[in-house]
From TrEMBL:
Homology family: Belongs to the LysR transcriptional regulatory family.
Keywords associated with the record: Activator, DNA-binding, Transcription, Transcription regulation
Domain HTH lysR-type: 15-72
Coiled coil: none
Name of the featured protein: Probable hydrogen peroxide-inducible genes activator
CDD domains: PBP2_OxyR (cd08411)
InterPro entries: LysR_HTH_N, LysR_subst-bd, WH-like_DNA-bd_sf, WH_DNA-bd_sf
A Pfam family matched in the record: HTH_1
Organism of provenance: Streptomyces olivaceiscleroticus
Length: 319
């Protein structure tokens, strides 16, 4: 690596985007093999790009040992700048692509697990029928991971429950949907259409695991109904399908969004459903994008088209 005293070293040379991209990947993973895999570069090429960046800048960015890779103090500072540069370049490419032709190229859509199986058919039909040149890539993840992906440019648009209350994120509401009580077939609340929320205070409630926004929403509903925070809640399922099977086995009751009801309970004779008295507990589903996204108008048009595509579902479409 060149040092400040090397003849001709003087002022740092202009680094290339390839060098910055390689270093940003190494700085994130602190592992050459993982970084190379993420950006589709061979390890020798990656190592060469980082070394070239060190030469260009005249500073040591990494401390390499036989077991691990560490960022030097200079590397910590440069890594933050490199990430900013790469995000700006991504925005530039996105803006150019959007200006060239809307609804073409790649759209990386993140979806929460409690929406994906029930809403994706409408999304896919819309894309195939109306936007055939759009390369839709779907990523099913929990809310926190989706927001991280949106913030770092890994995802373009999210389909999830709101409000998020996150700075720098713009929400495009799609619809509101009620929650329905799902219980074993002989349960005393089965078949009712006027269940008071207060009934949730003493029920054996089954919920999703930590990290699912639907779990947090259900707990909020229970607190509003007067259920004590210390009341027993069995958490045994990573997905709604498993949750419903536990209910069918008599282990308790659960809350399902209306869009999931037909898929999850339609063929199970061991289950019954009950509907809450007005106003029923509900959730709002929206698309979310980065505030000021280059493709904002495109995403707004997509949201409007998706609202129309979702009208046949048992939901209240947002104005």
């Amino acid at each position: 690596m060149a040092s400040p005293t090397t003849p001709g070293a003087g002022r740092p040379r202009q680094p290339s985007l390839s060098q910055l991209r390689a270093f940003a990947a190494v700085a994130e993973h602190l592992h050459f093999r993982e970084a190379a895999a993420e950006i589709g570069m061979s390890q020798p090429a990656l190592s060469g790009a980082v070394s070239a960046l060190e030469d260009a800048l005249g500073v040591q960015l990494l401390e390499r040992t036989t077991r691990k890779v560490l960022l030097s103090p200079a590397g910590e500072r440069v890594a933050a700048r490199a990430r900013t540069v790469m995000e700006a370049v991504g925005d530039l490419m996105e803006e150019a692509e959007a200006a060239r032709a809307p609804f073409t190229g790649v759209l990386r859509l993140g979806v929460i697990p409690t929406c994906a199986p029930y809403l994706l058919p409408a999304v896919l039909n819309l894309v195939h029928g109306t936007y055939p040149d759009l390369d839709l890539q779907v990523h099913e993840e929990q809310t926190a991971s989706l927001l991280d992906g949106l913030a770092h440019g890994r995802l373009d648009l999210l389909l999830l429950a709101v409000p998020l209350g996150v700075a720098g994120v713009t929400e495009l509401p799609l619809f509101d949907e009620d929650f329905v009580l799902v219980a074993p077939k002989d349960h005393w609340l089965g078949g009712r259409g006027d269940i008071p929320r207060e009934a949730l205070r003493e029920l054996d409630l089954l919920l999703l695991d930590e990290g699912h926004c639907l779990r947090d929403q259900a707990l909020d509903i229970c607190r509003e109904a007067g259920r004590e925070d210390g009341a027993a809640v069995t958490t045994s399922a990573a997905g709604l399908s498993t949750l419903v099977q536990l209910v069918a086995g008599g282990m308790g009751v659960t809350l399902l969004p209306r869009t999931a009801l037909r898929v999850e309970t339609g063929r199970n004779e061991e289950l019954t459903t009950g509907y809450f008295d007005d106003p029923a507990p509900s959730r709002r589903i929206a698309l979310a994008m980065r505030a000021g996204a280059a493709r904002q108008r495109e995403f707004e048009e997509f949201a409007a088209a998706l609202r129309e595509a979702l009208r046949p579902l048992p939901v209240r479409i947002a104005a």
